[in-house]
Amino acid sequence: MEKIYDVVIIGAGPAGLSAGLYASRGKMSTLILEKDKTGGQIVTTHEVANYPGSIESATGPSLIARMVEQCKEFGAEIKKDTIKEIKTEEKIKVLVGEKETYQARTIIAAPGAIPRPMGVPGEKELTGKGVSYCATCDADFFTDFEVFVIGGGDSAVEEAMYLTKFARKVTIVHRRDELRAAKSIQEKAFKNPKMEFMWDTVIEEVKGDGVVESAVFKNVKSGELTEYHADEEDGTFGIFVFVGYLPQTDLFKGLLEMDETGYLITDDNMKTKIPGVFAAGDCRVKSLRQVVTAVSDGAIAAIQAEKYIEHTFHE
């Protein structure tokens, strides 16, 4: 534990990797810690068409691979570990991990967010057996099958359109009577002959023995319940859930300020209420959660960390 890093970054998604790039390029000793897979949610994204400059069919994994390479080129270390506790009472902060304990002059929290489950009976038991949260990962399993997509925002509609490349029919199930997705995305969806829409509807239950075999739908206006059964020949169908995200901020409860849903509160410079602790990316209270805003947050956090070190340790 002798080494004291200038910056320890929790999370290796776009925000964490951007922070790592800016920090290491600024000649700060930089460690990026990731408990799961490098890249966060973007590695499950088939196409990154809205990231400036990515016009050569960049995928989530290909973009992340480049970011990782850049970070390492400038000397950032990337390690797998799960942080269990953070101590910020002293100038040098301590991060207690499952594998090691680390010391840092500054911390950048970039733990990201994960897909929000529907919270209905059968969902958990049948996840990976017909219930999915990632079209890119699982679309191929549903080639020529029927698929339901739960949600009405940008990601739900975009993923639904991607699924039409595989499934014979894709039905968007939305609790309102109109989509929340951007108008340009909606226009494409309404023109897609493989897509159908169930308005004012939610899923009440998912049923099946080993695989999804039926789903109970409820009309939120009439209260009417309808059970959809898999086609006899198919034996199953897909349920893809895109109803928002849960910030992965449990580690920071009682330490950093959060809103009522668990997103971390920072100022425009990514500063939290604790000097030397910053937050970046999807874990933060913000109006837009996209790769482009995550990398922006990471860059700002790293520059602010550098300024904090300059003022706190070098004066």
From TrEMBL:
UniProt-listed PROSITE patterns: PYRIDINE_REDOX_2
Enzyme Commission number: 1.8.1.9
GO cellular component: cytoplasm
EC category: oxidoreductase
Record field: catalytic activity: [thioredoxin]-dithiol + NADP(+) = [thioredoxin]-disulfide + NADPH + H(+)
GO BP: removal of superoxide radicals
Note accompanying the cofactor annotation: Binds 1 FAD per subunit.
Molecular functions per Gene Ontology: thioredoxin-disulfide reductase (NADPH) activity
Highest taxon in the source lineage: Bacteria
Presence of the UniProt keyword Ligase in the record: no
Cofactor(s) it depends on: FAD
Keywords: Disulfide bond, FAD, Flavoprotein, NADP, Oxidoreductase, Redox-active center
InterPro entries: FAD/NAD-bd_sf, FAD/NAD-binding_dom, Ferredoxin-NADP_redctase_2, Pyr_nucl-diS_OxRdtase_2_AS, Thioredox_Rdtase
Family according to the record: Belongs to the class-II pyridine nucleotide-disulfide oxidoreductase family.
Description of how the protein assembles with itself and partners: Homodimer.
Protein name: Thioredoxin reductase
Annotated organism of origin: Clostridium aceticum
